[in-house]
């Protein structure tokens, strides 16, 4: 059953439900992505940015710097929702955790350094719990 897309920032934050996608990911730029098994793509004037599983990038001998954990915010966020990206990025920035955001139709996805994944998940869960605590207060 599809849930309706949420727009209310408090409700979005309260129900973030961050989940780490299995695997380790890299970001590369190429002008020829025809045969590459990308998990996400962004077309830019300079070329195409791809997010690939690390083992796939290594198999194709694609150079990359750094590896990333992919965290999905399981809440179904509306594309018109305001403030979710800023709140999530702010919570991670407070801990100096770099974050790149990919917006899908149903969910927002975060790429954070692999070695900071658990810390990022904890920060997101704390953000969600703090909003719930404020809303639930009598």
Task: Give a short synopsis of this structure.
It contains four helices and six strands; from the N terminus they run αβββαβαββα.
Structure description:
By secondary structure, this protein is of the alpha+beta class. It has one domain (9-136): VC0802-like (2-Layer Sandwich), CATH 3.30.2130.10. It is 30% helix and 30% strand. It has helices spanning 9-14, 54-59, 84-93, 117-136, and strands at 18-30, 40-44, 47-53, 68-73, 100-103, 108-113. It has a six-stranded antiparallel β-sheet with strand order 2-3-1-4-6-5. β2 (40-44) and β3 form a beta hairpin. The relative contact order is 0.22.
- Per DSSP E runs of 2 or more residues, the count of β-strands stands at 6
Helix content: 25-40%
Structurally, the number of domains stands at 1
The side-by-side strand order for the widest beta sheet comes to 2-3-1-4-6-5
**Major sheet characteristics:** 6 strands, antiparallel
Fraction of residues in β-strands: 25-35%
Low-confidence segments, given as residue ranges, are none
Oligomer: single chain
Order of helical and strand elements: HEEEHEHEEH
Average pLDDT works out at 90
Distance between the terminal alpha carbons, to the nearest Å?
Answer: 33 Å
CATH architecture: 2-Layer Sandwich
Number of helices: 4
Q: CATH class, please? A: Alpha Beta
CATH fold type: VC0802-like
Annotated CATH homologous superfamily: VC0802-like
Q: C-alpha Rg, in Å?
A: 16 Å
């Amino acid at each position: 059953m599809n849930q309706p897309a949420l727009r209310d920032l408090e409700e979005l934050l309260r129900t973030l439900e961050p989940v780490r996608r299995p695997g380790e990911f890299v970001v590369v730029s190429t002008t020829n992505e025809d045969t590459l098994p990308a998990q996400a793509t962004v077309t830019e004037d300079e070329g195409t940015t791809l997010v690939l599983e690390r083992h796939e990038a290594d198999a194709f001998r694609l150079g990359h710097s750094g590896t990333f954990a992919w965290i999905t915010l399981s809440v179904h966020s509306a594309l018109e929702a305001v403030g979710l990206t800023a709140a999530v990025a702010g919570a991670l920035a407070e801990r100096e955790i770099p974050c790149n955001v990919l917006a899908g139709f149903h969910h927002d996805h975060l790429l954070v350094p692999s070695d900071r994944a658990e810390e990022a998940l904890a920060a997101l869960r704390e953000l969600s719990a703090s909003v719930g605590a404020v809303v639930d207060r009598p």
